[in-house]
């Protein structure tokens, strides 16, 4: 097992060195922090869409159909609680 650990450690070091040569800063050789991919999983998309639809349905049931209705409702809420 100890031999395998040494081999694996060397393999990781070679891979890291190769990445630094390809993607690293030319002066320092350090890898840059790359931003996360903007891709979203299908499951997450469905979940957010379901949540959005539920909110739209509740807004229609409550009579808040247009943006003016929403603005008036928030203004009334502020007046009631102030």
Brief synopsis:
By secondary structure, the chain is mainly α. The protein has 2 domains: about 1-35; about 40-80, no CATH class. It has 3 helices and no strands.
Characterise this structure.
The protein is mainly alpha-helical and 82 residues long. It folds into 2 domains: 1-34; 40-82, no CATH class. The chain contains 3 helices and no strands. The protein is elongated.
How are the secondary structure elements laid out?
Elements: H1 2-23, H2 42-61, H3 67-81
Main traits of this protein?
single chain; 82 residues; mainly alpha; 2 domains; 3 helices; elongated
Bulk shape: elongated
Q: What string, H for helix and E for strand, traces the elements in order?
A: HHH
Q: Helical residue percent?
A: 55-70%
CA gyration radius, whole angstroms:
27 Å
Number of discrete helical segments: 3
Structural class by sheet pairing and helices:
mainly alpha
